[in-house]
Amino acid sequence: MIKDPKRYTVTAALIYANGPIHIGHLAGCYLPADIYVRYLRSLGKDVVFVSGTDEHGVPITIKAKNEGSTPQQVVDKYYKQIKHSFEDFGISFDIYSRTSKEAHHKVSQDYFTNLYNKKYFNEEITEQYFDESAGQFLADRYIVGTCPNCGNENAYGDQCEKCGSTLSPTELINPRSMLSGAKPVLKKTKNWYLPLDKMQPEIEAFVNSHPEWKSNVAGQCQSWLKQGLLPRAMTRDLEWGVKVPLPDTEGKVLYVWFDAPIGYITFTKEFFEKFNSEKDKKDYIYDRTTYKDLKADDWEKYWKAEDTKLVHFIGKDNIVFHCIIFPAMLIADGSYILPDNVPANEFMNLEGDKISTSRNWAVWLHEYLEEFPNRQDVLRYALCSNAPETKDNDFTWKDFQTRNNSELADIFGNFVNRVMVLTNKNFEGKIPALGNLTELDKQVITTLKDLPSKIAASLEQYRFREAQAFMMELARLGNKYLAETEPWKLIKTDIVRVKTIMNISAQITANLSIVCEPFIPFTSAKMTRMLNIPKHPWIEAGKVDLLPTGHQIKEGEILFTKIEDAEITTQIQKLEASKKANELANAVVAPAKEAVSYDDFTKMDIRVATILEAERVPKTKKLLKLKLDTGLDQRTVVSGIAEYYEPEKIIGQQVCLLANLAPRDIKGIMSQGMILMAEDKDGSLSFVSPSKMISNGGIVA
Ligand SMILES: [Zn+2]
Questions:
Q1: Residue 164 C-alpha to ligand 1 middle, in angstroms?
Q2: Spatial distance between the Cα atoms of 157 and 176, rounded to a whole number of angstroms
């Protein structure tokens, strides 16, 4: 652990730009990172806080495929939305950038080239699945097949989501390409591997030099090291990403976990380059006034100087990349410092269930910001109170309501409001003078002086829940002090005593405005406005003369209003609706229909028929016009199967026809009967055909 760092580089995870931000992301990484950075800034430390979106990798291309758009459109859309949500929520990045920028491609290509020239990579030829009809290699996520462990027919090449087992594509039974549905073939391809096996001693020495790391982080690292590190491919056969900067590597890009963490470096560079440009500052850089005279090449100190403390905030799913693979890349380059700490959190669940984007089981930040306007601090407070620092934790709307109503409103807000109202009412808003101190006053002042260093100690150890609880203790202290001394009663009999009580209470309020800032910055800003004071640095916290006698305060504002049951019910109903929609989507079998008599069934005249001709019905998406030989006659039938069958490919196909269905006019064509179709879970249709040739007109019964 580095002692007395000269400067800090703090990074927060690079999230894939393929969906919006939810509370799990916030609790896992962005909120603790922001609390830490705000605290450092309040201490007057030299800190750069960088993050951005990861815009490469297979998840982006899959999202594009699902949305029917291009990868570029996907990342443009979500980058904007994510950046905007973070700004609204008060996550105070110095820069929030993106890995699809040309500058980042250049930096990561140079990084790769440097390691290549130093002969760090092993070239290896392996066999990978290739889709011949699509003409491309298939990433693991692009291969589906039957899970060898549980028989799930839609397991991915890297994982079965049904039984949770980790797979490799070659383990899948009956693999098929998600691009074409075709059976992929194994084909040789060359890629470049980082020999983590050979680097294991260096990586082990690095990890073991940090006994202070959180136990969940250290535990994961040790388990990887114990298994023995394996060489890892740093290039992939993919179209979307940073091109491999070597000759004859068409169709190959850098592994997304190679280029993404280099993004932290690129964004730091970008910050220093743009800092002096008013326009760029507005576009990328959070409101900052603490830096002066930064030069473009200053970035290097933040990544290369030994007296810089580098801290990566991430969720637990990224531990291996930040504690092993990225450090290995940094070691291989040789000119960079290694992370001092990686305080990863575990996962935040929601109402007892794992947060899931695909199942829409989440509280989305952009929706929260719309539905709870100006209540950023309530969510910040609730998430930090319950942060999954050592184990997975659960967010519930009831807990959110209780945190707001019973803690923020009843304690913090109530205390500050009483101070404002009583001072304005009894002393014309001027801080009254301190008189003789009672034992109680002295106790309160001692606790007030102690708390800021307790909060700081917890923050320095990345114990944010504990730190916030100490902050709340200060509000509790003030609230209890007023409740016990009852200045509103005393005012009639002992104004001198009331002056002392109100002076001490006002000092507590001013202290609160300093120590609450990292956690609930919007509230802190309101408080400094109300108290009519500048934003004080952390060093001032614990002082009892922040507000001099006679200092004029302003009118108070209500800091926290109660959250009504109805608002919570609305949110819970919204989640229940998601659950219902998921159940529907997962429904495999439609419920049974009512019983019918055999006579009813025999009224249906179902015949085997052969398709003679087929053509699309103009100006429709779904309809084919078919000519059938039914054995009885040749007739025309219109069928809604154009999404599933090419007309030219079904000539000669035998089908089953409900031949005595009354003729119907469909788009101006008289359809004489209905072809029986079987419907799959996803709504796709398939002919029902006899398993061997049957003469046309054969009866189905
Ligand atoms: Zn399985």
A1: 6
A2: 10
